[in-house]
């Protein structure tokens, strides 16, 4: 790289630049918000976000709790990861399950869209209101989806948690405006400018632990509605004629196991995953049943308070 | 449509397939270019980005399937692909076929990584364009070949330039609809060049393209054999971005947060905005001015031996110093300035217009202060670059104004530093971000910083002379009688044995300020310098008489605030414009009326009447003698 800088210093690589930007964002929130929380979903983006938080506040512990809005339908490996991480990080872990969804035994087999709506969207709103969090970190990236591509780093929410995409605050340079009225809150996306490739490359370079489901292994699967689903526990309702088959699979994204499609793969190390990703022909969200519902589905969900 | 690519993501990199480790190593060291597309409505900005994503093979099969279906359903291109739909992600945008807010998209080629912000062309959404432009290294200004340069082309070019985007590309789009005409292309380039010159844009690359058909995007087009420059993408890949320049500047780090995990550790966390720092470096904490030495640069990995602009770090010092969020750590010998009155350019971004005098929150780097904006000096007409008189700034207006803050700000002119010169204004009631601002310069320096204490002080001088230092400030229209009255006052003071000195246009404009003209900015600087000189003279114990039109309240106030309480005496020499013009001693009014003199106070530049002058002299009712007696009586009281 051609630099005219003082000896011994070269321009930052783009990953160093992204890391630095994310750390800056997190520190702004801590300095300016009263009660921040970090949404933790055990996925690779959460793993990177948490890793960055630990860097940002080193040698201290990140001065906020982790919040997992649980649906009770995550992969077992994800729960194991969550408890492990909470223990290692020294941070408080709050697990919230929407009591209404618990009472009604909401599940992905019987309830379709209601499953996401009650567990995730409503559950999140409940938790934020109940604990009075005024800022919540989320691991969303702008390259994930077209309405995310439009969202600010500091994304303002009304007292009823609504996002107004047509009326976002201007956001200049790296000057964020966290001022809000009582009851209003902000969602903060420190990974806004990261791409899927950046995330993987960073995980690789920094050796960040991730849920084993991201690596290929033989797992019991069924093919259903165009998705390759993993039969993770006995609650999985097999349809007549369906028989679980062992396939070497891995996941590009993790959610509720009955809704998350796997890809067939033999990638057992991060470089291999990246290689498959570079050569793939479909996007990461392809494996999520949630996005295919309606044309502008993510935008609508976000307006209603989904992260 | 040219060259249908094969659709595998990130480009089907042969290297990635063969040797992933080698690929990763190379990718890791790619440089990053942030750019925006801007220009007028429907000039094809979103289409261009869609095209770049498509041609650089960033579109996955599932996304392409959705795009193809969406294009048929709601696209603007009949059965063809409407690339804009790849970027216009909001439901309202897709329905109306316009862009409302910035979209950030990402792509990479073999050489570089790109973050591109697609900005809206509609004037209504200018603030979203500004949002996108604030972090860009390069701007692509699109022009529809059939329509040529429009108001929004000018507005966006001007904004991009104001925000300090150094690299510009003029992409003349829809060449397919202009018959790929070289004449048309050259005519637009020529028109743009003269506009660009007028606003100080030195250089740009002009490329004839068709976003829709793909001409000169990735490869040179056969349709434009007359165009010898590079296709757009190779320019983006190769244009130089000078990221190392920042590292060569003196060290500055706005303190974001103090890290105190336990009693033994106290670190200052922040993002280095300029320069380079090493353990052992001498640093100064601003605004206190105290100095210390860098002990460690702490990161979670290891302590660093050096850190540079762009890095987020935690710094510990060898001394226990008072330092908290909002302070700036800087190279001890080259600290930034500290001041509380500035001239700035403002881009107004709220529906509710600027209220001069109302307190707003101002955030600059990690500093929060309360700021009041004075009456704007002028607003800029983005079509003609003319300066228009303005009492306020409304949505999307760009104007120049002075502002004062309730606490000193540590700053640098925006030209030197985006971080320490760029700020936002926030409405204290609605909490909305209402303006973006860029500091030009300080109108006066904060007085308590690094002050050289003098053994013989001003009182000593004054005692020796048996007089109280004063600054008699005569303001009024040209020809109102300021100099005549001031001369009389000086004679009378001399007769009383008082030492005085008269500063007026003649002895200042020809020497000290001979580099200044009569634009508003020059007028401010003129008065600022006079204020400083007058201050030195009052320090020496003199009674200073200053006779200047000084048409703006803000500058008069500035000088007043530079003086000690009671020292500044504002004397308003009140003469109606008709009378001053009748007198026209120097024939200046005649020239101004004939258009030979620009910016002439009272004719095409305003005079702001003093609100509470210490003395008001009405030259129609009193003679100069009477006025002089009254003034002498006032100061000899
Ligand atoms: N023939 C032709 N049409 C084009 C070209 N580029 C864009 N268009 C069409 O021009 C129209 C406007 O394109 P957009 O990309 O939405 O324009 P925009 O500049 O993003 O508009 P705003 O963001 O709303 O300001 C669409 O119908 C495009 O298909 C081109 O090179 N040739
Ligand atoms: Mg557009």
Describe the overall structure:
The complex is a heterodimer of chains A (307) and B (637). Chain A is of the alpha/beta class. Chain A has two domains: 13-198 and 296-304, Rossmann fold; 211-292, no CATH class. In chain A, 34% of the residues lie in helices and 14% in strands. In chain A, the strands form two sheets. A six-stranded mixed sheet of chain A has the order 3-2-1-4-6-5. Chain B folds into four domains: 12-241, P-loop containing nucleotide triphosphate hydrolases (Rossmann fold); 245-331, Translation factors (Elongation Factor Tu (Ef-tu), domain 3); 340-448, Translation factors (Elongation Factor Tu (Ef-tu), domain 3, Beta Barrel); 465-636, P-loop containing nucleotide triphosphate hydrolases (Rossmann fold), CATH 3.40.50.300. Chain B has 18 helices and 28 strands. Chain B has a seven-stranded antiparallel sheet with strand order 7-15-11-12-14-9-8, with no helix packed on it. A six-stranded mixed sheet of chain B has the order 2-3-1-4-5-6, with helices on both faces. In chain B, a hairpin with a 6-residue loop joins β19 and β20 (387-388). Chain B is globular, with a radius of gyration of 30 Å. The N and C termini of chain B lie far apart (88 Å). Chains A and B meet through α1, α2, α7 and α8 of A and α2, α4, α5, β2 and α6 of B. The structure holds guanosine-5'-triphosphate and magnesium ion (MG).
């Amino acid at each position: 790289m051609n630099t005219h800088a003082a000896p011994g210093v070269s321009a930052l690589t783009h990953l160093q630049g992204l890391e630095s930007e994310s750390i800056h964002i997190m520190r702004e929130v801590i300095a300016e918000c009263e009660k921040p929380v970090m949404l933790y979903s055990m996925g690779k983006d959460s793993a990177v976000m948490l890793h960055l938080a630990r860097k940002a506040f080193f040698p201290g512990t990140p001065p906020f709790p982790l919040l997992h809005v649980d649906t009770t339908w995550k992969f077992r490996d994800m729960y194991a990861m969550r408890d492990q991480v909470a223990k290692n990080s020294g941070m408080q872990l709050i697990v919230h399950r929407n009591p209404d969804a618990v009472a009604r035994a909401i599940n992905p087999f019987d309830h379709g869209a209601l499953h996401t709506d009650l567990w995730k969207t409503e559950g999140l709103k409940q938790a934020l209101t109940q604990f009075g969090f005024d800022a919540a970190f989320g691991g969303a990236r702008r390259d994930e989806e077209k309405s995310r591509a439009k969202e600010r780093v500091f994304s303002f929410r009304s007292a009823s948690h609504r996002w107004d995409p047509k009326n976002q605050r201007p956001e200049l340079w790296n000057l964020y405006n966290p001022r809000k009225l009582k009851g209003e809150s902000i969602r903060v996306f420190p990974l806004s400018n990261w791409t899927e490739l950046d995330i993987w490359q960073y995980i690789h370079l920094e050796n960040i632990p991730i849920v084993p489901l991201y690596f290929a292994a033989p797992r019991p699967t069924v093919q259903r509605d165009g998705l390759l689903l993993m039969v993770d526990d006995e609650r999985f309702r097999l349809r007549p004629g369906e028989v679980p088959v062992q396939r070497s699979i891995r996941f590009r994204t993790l959610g509720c196991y009955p809704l998350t499609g796997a890809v067939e793969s033999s990638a057992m190390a991060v470089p291999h995953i990246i290689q498959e990703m570079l050569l793939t022909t479909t996007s990461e969200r392809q494996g999520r049943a949630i996005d295919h519902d309606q044309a502008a589905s993510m935008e609508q969900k976000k307006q209603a308070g989904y992260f | 449509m040219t060259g249908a690519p094969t659709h595998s993501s990130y480009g089907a990199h042969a290297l990635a397939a063969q040797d992933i480790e080698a690929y990763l190593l190379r990718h890791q060291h790619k440089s990053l270019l942030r750019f925006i597309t801007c220009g007028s409505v429907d000039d094809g900005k979103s289409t261009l980005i869609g095209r770049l994503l498509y041609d650089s093979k960033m579109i996955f099969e599932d996304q392409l399937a959705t795009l193809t279906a969406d294009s048929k359903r709601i696209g603007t291109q009949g059965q063809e692909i409407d690339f804009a739909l790849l970027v216009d992600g909001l439901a309202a945008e897709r329905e109306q076929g316009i862009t409302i807010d910035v979209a950030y998209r990402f792509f990479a080629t073999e050489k570089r990584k790109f973050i591109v912000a697609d900005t809206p062309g509609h004037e209504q959404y200018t603030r979203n364009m500004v949002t996108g432009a604030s972090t860009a290294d390069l701007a692509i200004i699109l022009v529809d070949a059939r329509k040529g340069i429009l108001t929004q082309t000018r507005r966006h070019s001007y904004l991009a330039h104001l925000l300090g985007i150094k690299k510009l590309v003029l992409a003349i789009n829809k060449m397919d609809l202009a018959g790929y005409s070289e004449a048309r292309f050259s005519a637009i380039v020529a028109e743009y060049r003269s506009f660009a010159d007028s606003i100080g844009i030195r250089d740009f690359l002009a490329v004839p393209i068709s976003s829709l058909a793909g001409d000169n995007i990735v490869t040179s087009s056969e349709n434009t054999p007359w165009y010898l420059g590079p296709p757009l993408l190779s320019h983006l890949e190769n244009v130089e971005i000078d990221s190392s320049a920042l590292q060569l500047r003196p060290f500055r780090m706005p303190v974001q947060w103090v890290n105190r995990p336990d009693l033994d550790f106290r670190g200052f966390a922040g993002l280095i905005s300029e320069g380079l720092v090493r353990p052992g470096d001498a640093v100064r904490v601003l605004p206190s001015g105290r100095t210390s030495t860098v002990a460690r640069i702490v990161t979670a990995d290891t302590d660093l031996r050096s850190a540079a602009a762009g890095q987020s770090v935690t710094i510990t010092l060898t001394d226990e110093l008072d330092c908290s969020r909002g302070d700036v750590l800087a190279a001890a010998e080259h600290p930034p300035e500290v001041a509380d009155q500035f001239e700035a350019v403002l881009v107004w971004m709220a529906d509710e217009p600027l209220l001069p005098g109302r307190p707003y929150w101002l955030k600059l780097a990690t500093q929060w202060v309360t700021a009041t904006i004075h009456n704007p000096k002028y607003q800029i007409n983005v079509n003609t670059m003319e300066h228009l008189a303005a009492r306020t700034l409304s949505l999307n207006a760009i104007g120049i104004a002075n502002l004062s803050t309730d606490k000193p700000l540590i700053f640098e002119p925006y030209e030197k530093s985006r971080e320490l010169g760029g700020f936002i204004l926030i409405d204290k009631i609605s909490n909305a971000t209402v303006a973006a601002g860029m500091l030009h310069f300080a109108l006066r320096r904060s007085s308590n910083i690094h002050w050289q204490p003098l053994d013989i002080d001003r009182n000593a001088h004054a005692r020796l002379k048996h007089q109280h230092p004063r600054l008699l400030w005569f303001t009024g229209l040209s020809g109102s009688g300021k100099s005549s009255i001031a001369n009389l006052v000086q004679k009378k003071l001399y007769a009383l044995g008082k030492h005085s000195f008269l500063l007026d246009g003649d002895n200042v404009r020809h020497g000290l300020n001979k580099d200044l003209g009569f634009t508003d900015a020059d007028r401010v600087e003129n008065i600022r310098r006079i204020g400083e000189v007058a201050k030195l003279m009052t320090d020496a114990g003199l009674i200073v008489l200053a006779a200047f039109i000084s048409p703006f309240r803000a500058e008069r106030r500035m000088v007043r605030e530079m003086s000690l309480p009671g020292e500044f005496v504002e004397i308003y020499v009140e003469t109606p414009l008709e009378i001053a013009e009748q007198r026209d001693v120097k024939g200046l009014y005649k020239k101004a009326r004939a258009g030979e003199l620009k910016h002439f106070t009272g004719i095409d530049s305003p005079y702001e009447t003093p609100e509470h002058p210490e003395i008001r002299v009405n030259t129609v009712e009193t003679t100069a003698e009477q006025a002089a007696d009254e003034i002498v009586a006032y100061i000899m009281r």
